[in-house]
Design goal:
binds 2-(butylsulfanyl)adenosine, 5 domains, globular, OB fold (Dihydrolipoamide Acetyltransferase, E2P), 20% strand, alpha+beta, 26 strands, 5-stranded antiparallel β-sheet, D-amino Acid Aminotransferase, Chain A, domain 1, 5-stranded mixed β-sheet, Helix Hairpins
């Protein structure tokens, strides 16, 4: 074979591979619908890289192998945007949204129908210039007129197409947002913390920092993402007449367009959707700070024009901010059930998203140290959704010099016992064990709680009262409580005392899994308790298990196995269990004894939001029919139920070829497995 034939073959294959890789990149990153496994993708990629290495003359800057970045530059060259990059006016309430629409209607002298709603990603705006469908320049927005040329960095972003499909115009400037997912943001910060580098405050700063790297190889290692939402230049092809069509075209050219964009007919619909988004935003895996509302008809855009930098045809509906700054007055300590010392922030009260915040979570001592949070600091606090408010970090520039670093106490603030911090663990612990009232309180409360022994009426107040009155020291003491004793406690009416005695009595026949959970073994939650109960059947069998036997159980790793073993062999635990046995607590698992249930042998993973089912109800139902629930998709999984906004689990299931059910199919399976409804009369 002559050398030129060789080269020609290589060239054909290189082109083929680039086309394939670009296609699968687009399916995976832009459409979230991969068609091949990661392994198959890697094989294509490696083949291309090998061919390009063997034939350097075939190299091209547009090749997908070139997303790795290049050596540091000395600075960024300014880029003038031929068409300025605009910003947006804000609306902070439905009223302000209506006021915007009122102005639009006045100017036009008629009503407008049709709006596009786009989640307002909290990243940074960039402009991508394509000539002859090849990426030429990627620039930041800058001040809207002049930005920085960050082409080498932009090229490393997987969702920025390096070449466009045939139907794209000859000259095209696409605008959109570069951003990082919350998970990626967290990963970057964890890495920075490990390297002793200062942390990024939020995904936006982190995305901006990642893009503005002089060394694009650093950018290449950050999982930046890009969504397209607007255009600047467009030449050589008719312009779409509507924003919705424009987004569709951009998707066809090869861009990722946000799949959560939506269309609304009237301004009332728009307002309702914006309110809905305030809650729905939690379901996204990236941060948004509002919703961009655009009039769909692009002819109306020209008619309305802009005021200064702000177009009249669009507006940003902004959510109430979820962050605020305040003073960290002090750091308090909570002693947990297993003795962990949990520091928490005592704050100068501050309003965040309509709620006054006085306390916030601080994780652990290491976290405080690595974020360099000091008592007296001005700190950024964040309240997102239903989660406990968190201290993000200090505002270093507001330091006065009077701030004090925090140190974990060396003795328990509740019982005075020495505090230890075992090697390799993040949490400091009180060694007081059962003698520490704080630990005892948490243990008893956990024992009686709903997911454990589920003793109705035995909440925080009663737990505190019975411990204070000296009536309860260990869980078994609960079963010795008389109606008279309970009635003598303050604020407990006779009737509730009688009810309580009944619910205490009822808890004696809880299944073994709940008793195990109620013991409060470290790392052992509801699911692991169920696994143990299934595997061992009785408390005695569990107590007799060796560490090896525990670890040999599917779903129990060495760390958990060790924790269970150590816990169960301690004298105190044995005492507690004997006490419970003597009190009449049954501690056996009613197993599906020999009865094959319809879903026996199946393992299910749920991902995304279901409409008709809560997560818990769906899981209970599957378990009741004999199925197992798992957290992650593995080769053992047999079914994956996919709701709205599924996570990476869907992709994994697709890769593994696991049966995937949507909610309708899931309902149908359950109905089939459950058999005909019991009360149904044959017709
Ligand atoms: S359109 C014509 N659409 O918001 C108006 N902007 O304050 C130009 N942003 O700098 C922007 N998501 O960084 C538009 N779907 C979206 C957006 C969006 C986020 C950001 C963008 C811009 C800022 C405007």
């Amino acid at each position: 074979m002559s050398r030129s034939v060789d080269l020609q073959e290589a060239q054909e294959r290189v082109e083929e591979l680039r086309r394939l890789i670009n296609y699968h990149n687009y399916q995976y990153h832009a459409l979230d619908a991969p068609e091949i496994s990661d392994g198959e993708y890697d094989a294509l990629f490696n083949e291309l890289r090998a061919l390009e290495e063997a034939h350097p003359e075939l190299a091209s800057p547009d090749s997908p192998t070139q997303r790795v970045g290049s050596a540091a530059q000395s600075g960024f060259t300014p880029v003038t945007h031929r068409i300025p990059m605009l910003s947006l006016a804000n609306a902070f309430s439905p009223d302000q949204l209506n006021a915007w629409y009122g102005r639009v209607r006045n100017l036009l002298g008629r009503d407008v129908e049709g709006f596009v709603l786009e989640p307002k990603l909290d990243g940074l705006a960039v402009s991508l210039l394509y000539e002859d469908r090849r990426l030429k320049v990627g620039a930041t927005r800058g001040d809207g007129t002049v930005g920085d040329d960050t082409t080498p960095n932009v090229r490393t972003i997987r969702t920025v197409p390096l070449t466009l499909s045939e139907d794209a115009p000859n000259l095209l400037e696409v605008r959109g947002e570069v951003y990082l997912s919350r998970a990626a943001f967290k990963r970057i910060n964890d890495e920075r913390a490990a390297n002793g580098e200062p942390l990024f405050m939020n995904p936006r700063n982190s995305a901006a920092g990642s893009l503005r790297q002089l060394d694009s190889r650093v950018t290449a290692r950050r999982p930046l993402d890009f969504v397209a939402y607007a255009i600047g230049l467009w030449e050589g092809k008719d312009l779409p007449r509507r924003q919705w069509e424009l987004l569709e075209s951009l998707r066809q050219f090869g861009f990722k367009v946000n799949p959560r964009n939506s269309y609304a007919r009237s301004i009332d619909d728009v307002a309702q959707r914006c309110l809905d988004w305030e809650h729905e935003r939690e379901s996204l895996d990236y941060d948004i700070d509002g919703v961009v509302v655009k009039i769909d008809d692009r002819a109306v855009h020209d008619e309305l024009g802009s005021v200064g930098r702000e177009p009249r045809w669009a507006i940003a509906y902004k959510f109430p901010p979820t962050q605020a700054t305040t003073i960290l007055r002090d750091i308090g300590i909570n002693v947990g059930r297993t003795g962990s010392l949990n520091p928490f922030a005592i704050l100068e009260p501050v309003q965040v998203a309509g709620v006054t915040i006085k306390l916030a979570s601080l994780h652990n001592e290491e976290d405080i140290a690595r974020k360099d949070i000091r008592i007296g600091d001005t700190v950024i606090v964040q309240r997102a959704g239903e989660v406990i408010p968190q201290v993000i970090g200090p505002v270093i520039t507001r330091r006065t010099g009077a701030e004090r670093p925090f140190h974990m106490p060396t003795s328990c603030p509740v019982c005075g016992a020495p505090v230890v911090k075992p090697e390799g663990e993040a949490m400091a612990r009180c060694t007081g064990g059962a003698t520490c009232p704080a630990q005892r309180y948490e243990q008893i409360r956990h024992f009686a709680s709903k997911p454990a022994m589920d003793i109705d009426g035995f909440g925080e107040k009663l737990t505190a009262a019975v411990i204070e009155a000296g009536l309860v020291r260990e869980p078994a003491d609960i079963y010795a409580l008389s109606q008279d004793q309970l009635a003598s406690l303050e604020r407990l009416a006779d009737k509730s005392a009688a009810n309580l005695v009944a619910s205490i009595e009822g808890s004696k026949s809880r299944p073994l899994s709940r008793v195990i959970h109620a013991l409060g073994i470290r790392y052992v939650g509801e699911r692991t308790s169920e696994i143990l109960a299934e595997q061992f059947g009785t408390m005695d069998a569990l107590l007799a298990a060796s560490e090896e036997e525990l670890v040999a159980t599917e779903g129990i790793g060495p760390k958990i196995g060790h924790s269970i073993f150590e816990f169960l062999r301690s004298g105190r635990t044995r005492g507690i269990i004997e006490g419970l046995r003597a009190a009449g607590v049954k501690m056996v698992q009613a197993r599906g004894q020999a009865v094959e249930l319809p879903l026996t042998g199946t393992t299910w993973v749920l991902t995304g939001r279901l409409e008709k089912w809560t997560r818990l109800a769906a899981e209970e139902r599957i378990k009741a029919l004999g199925g197992r629930i798992a957290d992650n998709v593995t080769r053992q999984s047999t079914h994956v139920v996919v709701g709205e906004d599924p996570g990476s689990k869907l992709r994994r299931a697709q890769q593994l070829g696991t049966t995937i059910l949507d909610e309708v199919a899931f309902d149908a399976q359950l109905a089939k497995a459950s058999g005909p409804p019991e009360n149904e009369t044959a017709s």
